[in-house]
TrEMBL record:
Highest taxon listed in the record's lineage: Bacteria
InterPro entries: Beta-glucanase-like, ConA-like_dom_sf, FA58C, Galactose-bd-like_sf, GH16_AS, Glycosyl_Hydrlase_16
GO molecular function, one term: hydrolase activity, hydrolyzing O-glycosyl compounds
CDD domains (UniProt xref): GH16_laminarinase_like
Family, per entry: Belongs to the glycosyl hydrolase 16 family.
Name this polypeptide is given: F5/8 type C domain-containing protein
Domain GH16: from-to ranges: 299-556
GO BP: carbohydrate metabolic process
Signal sequence bounds: 1-28
PROSITE patterns (alphabetical): FA58C_3, GH16_1, GH16_2
SUPFAM superfamilies cross-referenced by the UniProt entry: Concanavalin A-like lectins/glucanases, Galactose-binding domain-like
Keywords associated with the record: Glycosidase, Hydrolase, Signal
Residue ranges annotated for the F5/8 type C domain, each copy included: 20-158, 161-301
Length: 556
């Protein structure tokens, strides 16, 4: 739940040794097929919000329904059409539960997408099927005092023409901005950081000269391009009002999208235009600060794109290919395998009171198939307690898969066992939380009938991490299996094969901030004593306290 990093000494030793148009060579161009087509709805709130306003291409007009739960909205595409995607730009009164439905005749419907956990904002939903009519069947309101409302409902079809340059056009392209921040608070936050396909780096306007309106950032696509979509992942310093503009010469600009009701986080903008340069031109800040973007992604055809580094393929779950394992089957007293594990001695963080001993002095096999990590009440290096921490840094790291461990946790006030992952760019000097942290399991010894699974990133970390506390049986009485199933769409957390928490990439980007978990991470096991999160030890805390690990396995 809170921050836990490698010791400075250990780090020195180690250093010495979703929602966008898919990019790629097989992507097909998309065509907006719903704009200004006949639209009908179950109701309209009043004459100023008719169904036609939901497909007019104007994000300043909207459709809104009567104040009732069961509503629908549909558009007639005019002919049978191969539908590839639906985009919705919700107003505040969004649908929590709805289906996207397809029909050939406007009376018999087939579900192409369904959700009960929508979070509003700007949604881009891949669908597949052929239909003349596309309908939103709305069943649960987010704001029960109102109805449903959106600025635009868009239906897209793949043109069927394959173009090898279709996709992400802005990666690693030259960028300029009205101002840039490059100081100890944001170093560097230059314009190029918005186009590096790295959601943990960002552009920000200069704190001295740039906290003014207007503020802008632009990218040179290298050649004329046909723009189909722009995706902005805002920092909290977002634009309340801004335009997306295109230009042939970076001097004369045309606006292809405009809003005065920007709400930050992730904006998926389906707008068409032609130009070599694309610019976000902000005219009203959301706060006294300036403008800041984690990522500014431009999609379409043409330009002179540089392909970003390829990501590994998503695993198919249940994953069955074992890529890492330690069964801890050594003889009694034998030490963890140093071909798999790096011992991580030193002083901890978070107000913890233990010293992590070197050479696995507090960790050994028990001879019956388990590793024992032991916290002891003994003096060492100015501390009154010792324990053990080890990780797979520079030995094994992984991107995507099922990562699991079977663990028996200790009970006692102030004890804090954990099984977790750190982004391996930490080993190259990227500071926490910009490298990312995935806590698969944390248990507090004061209440071993609860556990935590949590993500930490620049926009959500420490006590504000994105995660879940879940109640269960007394975990100190037996071994239990904690696991994370991780792919490019998100991470699902399990306890004894029961799903306890889902972190959806799309939901996180639209509600908390950038998703920074699409790179390699390494594994960590440790038993902490005391600290800000578990609280202090007391006279009832048993020592030695033992965390037992039956195995650690990774599947892809």
């Amino acid at each position: 739940m809170n921050r836990r990093l490698l010791s400075v000494a250990a780090l020195g030793g180690l250093l010495a040794a979703f929602l966008a148009v898919p990019a790629g060579p097989a992507a097909a161009a998309e065509v907006l097929v719903s704009q200004n087509k006949p639209a009908t709805a179950s109701s309209s709130e009043w004459a100023g919000t008719p169904a036609a306003s939901g497909v007019d291409g104007d994000n300043g007009t909207r459709w809104s329904s009567a104040f009732a739960a069961a509503q629908w909205f549909q558009v007639d595409l005019g002919a049978a059409t191969a539908v590839s995607r639906v985009a919705i730009n919700w107003e505040a009164a969004y649908a929590r539960a709805f289906q996207v439905q397809l029909s050939s005749n406007g009376s018999t419907w087939t579900n192409a997408y369904s959700t009960t956990t929508a979070t509003g904002g700007q949604q881009s939903i891949p669908v597949s099927g052929t239909a003349r009519y596309v309908r939103l069947n709305l069943t649960q309101r987010a704001l029960e005092a109102y109805g449903y409302s959106f600025w635009e409902f868009q239906v897209f079809s793949e043109s069927g023409t394959t173009n090898p340059t279709n996709g992400l056009l802005s990666y690693a392209k030259p960028a300029r901005a009205s101002t840039e921040q490059n100081d100890p608070q944001c170093n560097p936050c230059t314009a190029d950081k918005a186009f590096d396909n790295d959601p943990a780096s960002r552009w920000a306007t200069n704190a001295t000269t740039g906290w003014v309106d207007p503020g802008w950032i632009q990218v040179d696509l290298g050649a004329t391009a046909q723009i189909s979509q722009v995706v902005l992942q805002w920092d909290p310093a977002y634009a309340r009002a801004y335009q997306i503009q295109v230009s042939a010469d970076a001097a004369t600009w045309s606006t292809i999208y405009s809003t005065t009701t920007g709400d930050g986080l992730k904006d998926v903008i389906n707008a068409s235009g032609t130009g070599r340069y694309v610019r976000m031109y902000g005219t009203a800040r959301s706060s006294t600060y300036g403008y800041s973007l984690w990522e500014f992604s431009v999609y379409g055809t043409g330009g002179n794109p540089t392909p970003p580094p390829a990501k590994p393929a998503d695993p198919v779950f249940p994953a069955s290919r074992l890529v890492f394992a330690d069964e801890f089957n050594g003889g009694a007293g034998s030490k963890p395998d140093t071909s798999k594990w790096t011992y991580d001695p030193g002083f901890p963080q978070n107000g913890e009171v233990q010293y992590y001993t070197p050479d696995s002095a507090n960790a050994a096999m028990n001879g019956t198939g388990a590793l024992v990590i032991e916290a002891r009440k003994e003096a060492s290096n100015g501390r009154d307690y010792t324990s053990h921490r080890m990780n797979t840094s520079n030995k094994f790291s992984v991107q995507y898969g099922r990562i699991e461990a079977r663990v028996k946790v200790p009970k006692g006030n102030g004890l804090w066992p954990a099984f977790w992952l750190m982004g391996d760019d930490f080993l190259q000097g990227r500071p926490w939380p910009y490298n990312g942290e995935i806590d698969i399991m944390e248990v507090l010894g004061r209440n071993t009938s609860e556990a935590y699974s949590t993500l930490h990133a620049p926009a959500y970390n420490g006590a504000g991490g994105y995660g879940q506390k879940y109640a269960t049986v007394d975990l100190s009485q037996d071994f239990h299996v904690w696991a994370a199933e991780w792919d490019s769409k998100g991470i699902r957390f399990f306890l004894d094969n029961t799903l306890v928490f889902t972190a959806s990439k799309d939901t996180v980007e639209n509600t908390r901030g950038p998703w920074i978990f699409d790179h390699k991470f390494y594994l960590i096991l440790n038993l902490a004593v005391g600290g800000d999160f578990p609280g202090p030890i007391d006279a009832t805390t048993p020592f030695p306290a033992r965390m037992l690990v039956d195995y650690v396995r990774v599947y892809q």
